Amino acid sequence: MPLIISEEPLYVFIVHWKRREQFPDETFNTTRNIGIKYPSYKEELLNQHFECTNEKFEDSEVIIQREPISYVPDEQAPKPSFPKVRFWELRIDEMNWIKSYRTVIQRILERGPVTEWQELIRYYGLAKVSNVIRNEILDLPDYTIKEVCDFFKFKKEDLLCYIRKQSKPKHWI
What is the pTM of this model? Predict the structure, then answer.
């Protein structure tokens, strides 16, 4: 998935289930993904609602609201400190941490210990890291998917990389 640089703000859709006690909130990057997971909430209906108004969508079961997301860490935050070996092919001193967020997050998840995962969260923020893991990283090894799900309390079915992995044909032997 290429990085799209646009003047328009990027949005995330936050779904809050009124009657769900455990994990009542979910985040989706498109209304299409909401419609796929919950067929009773049609993509067209949600798109029409959010085109007409910035107000939240609400019914007896759910509240859906569109929130702008920012991929820019706090300017006051010190640069993350990761071992140079994680980015062996790059000049780490000249690296743009903001533009390279997807590469950094994926590389640290695959090869770094939990302490480096916590450094990711400190620098980019939990919302950004979890959104990238769920919606932007296209490929992770199986062991990393399991570790990510355990650490962030995700279901593997919510990860784009897992969904893509399921649709790839395997060798028949």
Answer: 0.59
